[in-house]
Structure formats: C-alpha cells, structure tokens
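Quick start: load a record and inspect it. Here is tRNA dimethylallyltransferase:
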Amino acid sequence: MSFPPAIFLMGPTAAGKTDLALALARVMPCELISVDSALVYRGMDIGTAKPDRATLEAFPHHLVDIRDPAEAYSAAEFRREALAAMADITARGRIPLLVGGTMLYFKALLDGLADMPGADAEVRAELEARAEREGLAVLHAELQAVDPQSAARIHPNDPQRLVRALEVFRVSGMTMTQLRAQQSEVNSQQPGLPYTVAQLAIAPAQRQVLHERIAQRFDLMLEQGFVAEVERLHQRGDLHSEMPSIRAVGYRQVWDHLEGRLSAAQMRERGVTATRQLAKRQFTWLRSWENVHWLDSLDCDNLPRALKYLATVSILT
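Running the structure step on this input writes:
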C-alpha cells in the first residue's frame, strides 16, 4: 500500500526554514502547515517572526492565528488539527509541507502521544511557586530522583516542561517515562502516520553563525516594535507571565521588562540568551532524529538540493 506524500521541514529558530518553505511552495503543489507553538496565537506577530500579511495571503499557512493568547494549546490539539489539515490538503491533490521548530509537535505526528493526565491547577501552582522560591535546580533534582529518563531529556532551565513532568507524576502516580512506555505498547498495535514523509532540516553548519543571526533578529524585532506588541498584551489584564503564550521565548523577557524586573539592556540580553537556549534544545532533538536530510542555511542552492532529495524519496515523480 502506498501512502500520499508529506514533507517535514525542521530546524532551529532563525535558521531560514520559512524562506526555504516558500521557495518549495513556489515550485511544488504544496500547502504549508505551521509547526510552531507560538504562531498559533493571534496578536503575537513580531516576537514570533510570523510571516507578514502579504506572505500569508500569497501562501496561506494552516494553524497560524488559531488561538487567543489567553488559551492553552497542547501537542494533542496540534496533532489532531494537523492531521485534519493534512487530510484536507491531500484530498485536493496537494502535498502537506509542515514547517517549524516545535520538535515535540513533529514527534507527536510521527509517534503519537502518551495518554497523559490533564492539568491540575493546584499542583501546578504549588510547583511554580516552588520554582520561584527555591529555583529550577531543585525541581530538576526532584525529577531526577523520580524519573531520571525525563530529567535527562528536559533541560534544567525549561520551567514549563519541568513543572509538567512533576505534575504528571504527582497527579497520576506514574512518571512520564512509564506512561510513554505504556502508550508505546498501544501505538505498536496501531498504524503509524499514513504518509510517505520526507524529512528535511536546515541550519547553519557553524553554530556561531546561528548565534549571530539570533542576536540580529532579536534586535530587528525590537526595532519593529516588539516591546509595544507585548505592551498591548500586558494591558489586556487577562494575561499573566505563567501562561504558555507569555512564556514564549522573548515574550517572557519583554513582559518582565514592562513589569520593572529587567532593564531594557537586561531584557535584550536575556531574550537573546533564551533564544539561543531554545535553538540548542532544538538541535538536541534533531541530533537524535532518524532519517533526516540536512541542509546548510548558508548554501545558495538549497532549493535544488531539497528538490533532489525529495525526488530520491519519491516525493517528486
């Protein structure tokens, strides 16, 4: 049985994914699906490097601007909505091109998701208060004691995932590792993603180049009005710094600046640092990714290189 084609275009932030995706969409019958946990939010445009209005009109992106910043958005929701979009695109004889850097979402599509317990507001609030009071290192040490596999996978400075892993353990009595193993047994009895997937990743071969790009892009965002964008969100009154939308890289640092916890210089420095840490985590995911074809952001012929690879895996005929 042959499956319809789909393309994954992955990579760290500021690597040039969008430019390559648009180039592919110009020469192939592709439709773009965003794989980005921040692009789902309306009114968060500058700090997410969201494609501008003209680009979105010329190349519509599925799963962009689909949530208000006050709403949460989970990997399970992404998987459900991405699969629906892929089915719709395929039914019209086109190719889904999934582009972004939220690697958990790509993994959810490929491997499915463990059946995790829902959020518990009381437990989460307690863990977040501990993180503020005692520091993230204490939470990471606690996770290391109960679930060393998750502790090895989750960066010590990643508050959202640390809190979630401990919340899962407290609510269910089982670790994330145990729940994932349990779900893997279920998934092994079910068919995988029903597509022939070509997996591309793009990044500069030299890490220092990416670091420079990240700093330049953050400065450009500030010039474009990033602080004013976050200020509009801040003035709404229904958002706070622990919401997933405001935890997005850059937004948290500008939010802290607006609330007087960081100077403008500190905000810029920490925003750049947080973005580099995000890129490092994205690289960590991709280093262990199977069947991925790498492209160097600095090469001038990435489009023909990508097309050549797609032909070899029967995406192009």
